[in-house]
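Hello, quick one for you while I still have it in my head. Could you read through the record and tell me how the tokens relate to the sequence? No rush at all, and the record is pasted right below.
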Amino acid sequence: MSDSAWARFRRHRWLPQATLTLLLVALTAGFVLVRAEQRDRHNEDALARACGGVLPRKDAAKLLADDAWWTLRTGPGPRGLVSCSLGGDGEGDPWFTVTAEPVLAAPLKGVRVEHVIGRTAYEDEPDWAREHERADQLVTVPCPNGLPGYARPVTSFRVHAATDSPAGEWLGTLVAAVAEDVRAEGRCGGDPVRDTDVRPVTPAPQDDAPDSPPAECAWFRPALLGSALKGAEQSAHGATHAWARACSTTVTKPGAAGGAVVSSASWWGEALPEVRTEYGRELALAGRGGQPAAGTTKKAYELAVWAEGRCAGGRTLHRLGLEGTDRELLAARADSLLARYLDASGDCGDTKVLGKVWG
């Protein structure tokens, strides 16, 4: 009796091995296909949920690796806005992070001149307050109607993003989409956010050159104190914050009698009530015509001149401070120095000099 087909198949030299190989290839291909479909569904779901589902999916997908399983980390961002991060878990897999945060002015430690120009002028800031400086793309959006849910008025917010993807040029569209969603949901008003509003994050500007005074001190030069101090050396420190601007300049010249310290400061907005408290004595005495007591001998005199006005549409207080050993020099130069400082203060009007106070 002739051999069965099965027997002939088993006795064949290579057919059983080839069949087994084909079967293994088919099973492997099927498994890979199923896993790829599962991965695609997983990635589509993660992308649909990222940042509340507002990201442009095609652009976001271009930032990531097609063959990676994407992991989503999402939730409320700083102070209740948006934050999401998406990317592969494998080594070298690209990722991106998008964050929306309110623009909040950290409270100053104090409003006196030494506080405003100090190296640590602010109370401790939260970690997230500086994250945007390390991002790749950024947009700051005005919110004229104010963001709801904050104790103090919040009239702008920023959205920033970072990625290590080689297709980083698509990152800006994600930033714009999240920013527009926050603007609309917060009923901010103003103009819609467009892709062209997003800008690359530029490095922080370098510190002023050693021989160049800070911008807050540019209005002053030693010659304004008289010819005796023309060409004198000066050491200046200045700073500008949300509600205050100040400068302090120390002037010295070998051979000149004494020297002087000239300070200038302006406060507006939320800082005004605290300024009126901190400098309450000076403001109460300003304009009363007080002079250092006759016959008084002091190593140094202090003189402050106060003024008030409206700058950029808001009520503002200005103070010029002088310290030095030459009382006559301080008295003679105070008014002209205040006038020069006010002229350099920008868009100011309705200015009224309140008077001088000797310390």
Remarks:
- The chain has a mean pLDDT of 83.
- Helices lie at 5-11, 15-49, 57-62, 113-116, 171-185, 272-278, 280-285, 327-343.
- Residues 238 and 247 are 4 Å apart (CA to CA).
